[in-house]
Amino acid sequence: MIDSDCFASVRPFRPAPVLAIVVPCLDEAETLLHTDRVLSGKIVSLIEKGQVSDGSFVLYVDDGSTDGTWDVIERLAAESVRSRGLKLASNAGHQLALMAGLEAVSVCCDAAISIDADLQDDVEAIDEMTERYRSGFDVVYGVRRHRKEDGVFKRTTAKGFYRLRNALGMRTVNNHADYRLLSAAALKGLCRYRETNLFLRGIVPMLGLRQTQVFYDRKPRVFGRSKYPVGKMLNFAADGITSFSVRPARMILSCGLVFVLISLGILTYVLVRHFTGHTIPGWASIILSIWFCTGVLLLALGIIGEYLGKVYMEVKRRPRWQEERRLNI
Length: 329
Ligand code: UDP
Ligand code: MG
Description:
Elements: E1 19-25, H1 29-48, E2 57-63, H2 69-79, E3 83-88, H3 94-105, E4 111-114, H4 125-134, E5 139-144, H5 152-167, E6 176-183, H6 184-191, H7 200-203, E7 211-216, H8 230-242, H9 247-275, H10 284-316, E8 323-327
Parallel strand pairs: 1-2, 1-4, 2-3, 5-7
Antiparallel strand pairs: 3-8, 4-6, 5-6
Helix pairs in contact: 1-2, 9-10
The protein binds uridine-5'-diphosphate and magnesium ion.
Residues 116, 118, 120, 221, 226 line the site of magnesium ion.
């Protein structure tokens, strides 16, 4: 469904959209002034080119920061109506903060682009994204050309993660993070997904509509430090698998069946040895099997627990975030 061929002329030409750029922020006070300069500058240049309409804006979502990020957002919003703010009452996490922003802008824009506050994703790709939108696409993924600037650990784990998702039959856009444009139709579709364990990269390909990709080079972070330590990243990856597929649980079931068959074989062997007068040698093998089987059982229980935990969170239907204040929206 992803259409990466030339997006050209045969497609309907949409009018210049009201574009919302949604920026989730956790403790980004250091970078926000620079970020706003760049993003507002980009919007003004797009307006001048007639590529987006005059009412376009940037929405900063403060995800429970503790470093004065909201003060900066208030200052930016006071200086220009193009800069808007949404403050969450506590840290909901990157995906939910982003979703809160997208849901807020879905009623007042024609297209929304999500981008991280550190601007590691190249803002120059926004021009091409809006062009693709205007030529009729509803979802435009920003895709990294390569991952050379990542460390070996991140690069290898990311590769393994994408492979696993593909192997489990989940639709995935490789090397795409949360830098993407969504049309009003795509936003409307996205807002109907009410899940708490949110993994937007997995949901957006499921929206259908007309999807395409633009390519860019990712830069290193200039101000502040990453808000995604290894533990958070691994949890995020686990969500990316278990929120979309019950296949791992089924694989454990198949494993269980194979183990039962093997143990039946061992039982036959033991009985034959017994009736032919041979004693079973050694305890090492017994101890080994006890440990091994217990390990497998615990692993299975762990995976089942993971799914039960998700069901538990979903059935509660808790509000997924709490808004505190809005500025200019
Ligand atoms: N972020 C957020 N809430 C969180 C963690 C991160 O809103 O709980 C924001 C963060 O401010 C940034 C974006 O999500 O705008 C991505 O985070 P970061 O750049 O630290 O991740 P990395 O690029 O290191 O993967
Ligand atoms: Mg970053």
